[in-house]
Amino acid sequence: METITKCLNEWNATIEALGQGKQTILIRKYGTNINEFLLYPTISYTLKDNFLDSFQENYKDFVKDNSLPNKKDSKFEVKYYARVEKIIEKPSSRIGELNKYHIWTRNHVKSYLGNSKAQVWVLRVYELDEPKFLSRTRGMKYANVNEEVSLDNLKPVLSDSEFENIIKGI
Fold this sequence. Notes:
Shape: globular
CATH topology: Archaeosine Trna-guanine Transglycosylase, Chain: A, domain 4
CATH class: Mainly Beta
Strand content: 35-45%
Helix content: 10-25%
Number of strands: 8
Distance between the termini: 34 Å
CATH superfamily: Hypothetical protein
């Protein structure tokens, strides 16, 4: 049985967009040498009054509905596992052509990147066989969850053909 404890900290609405096939990329200022991880929900962005301004208009209702993860005591529900299939470097001025692959606004992406080149992580996302309520160690980007999670019986969020079409489009 293959298991994992490594997780990537990410906004819950973004995780749900990845997990429901509405998003297939993460835009970062940095690459990664960790190519597989659980998606661990964070909530700090929801504490800002204007957090909805970071999301495209047609996703605002989705974000409102998915801004907070399910929680039990101090543990958050982890439902998804992701693999980095490819990292594409793009100048920040060319990032707008990827808008249909994520839920953020251009302004949010530009503000985040500044003058940095974008490292576009193309993710293949899978639903865990069973969601788990987990806590994690400290860590800004990555952390470890408190128990091993089985990678048996993963279900891809997108079919092989849907994912291949997205790769071709990017």
